[in-house]
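Thread: Newbie trying to understand structure tokens

Hi all, I'm a second-year student working on a class project, and my supervisor (Dr. K.) asked me to get a predicted structure for one chain before our next meeting. I've only ever worked with sequences, so writing a 3D structure as a token string is new to me. If someone could post the tokens and maybe explain what I'm looking at, I'd be very grateful. Here's the chain:
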Amino acid sequence: MHHGCPGSQMRQMQHKPEPAGEDMPVLRSQLSQWPVQIKLVPVNAPYFDGAKLLIAADCTAYAYANFHQKFIRGHITLVGCPKLDDVDYSEKLTQIIRENNIQSVTVVRMEVPCCGGLERAAKVALQNSGKFIPWQVITISIDGNILSEL
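---
Reply by user tm_fold:
Sure, no problem. This is what the structure looks like when written as tokens:
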């Protein structure tokens, strides 16, 4: 029996193995900037000009197998964990959105409750920026599926 945060509950997933072979394509990273951690990224980095911003929970890239192709490609990527990082991301995200020409914001989070903090921080940042920017929230399940795209 587990007590505490549902996001900390141990689970083991069983996936059908991919066929092994030499004809498997080598996928390339779609990451276009560094650093990626919200806490480390400079607010006025030149890559924010005209950017489509991806704000992703740390765990999403591990849970969703096609993360680079589906989410990172064509985006400036910021990652963080509201449970493990003792910081309010909304202040820094507000600065990034307010001080740069951001074209859109996509939040990719896990289904666990603690990931709601990342979604809330992004919403607060969008509201506090005073800008009207298209945005969406995508929720990934623990077993690696897209649960919702809002």
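A couple of things are worth pointing out once you decode it. The beta strands are 52-57, 76-80, 104-110, 135-140, 146-149. The chain has a mean pLDDT of 89. Feel free to ask follow-ups in this thread.
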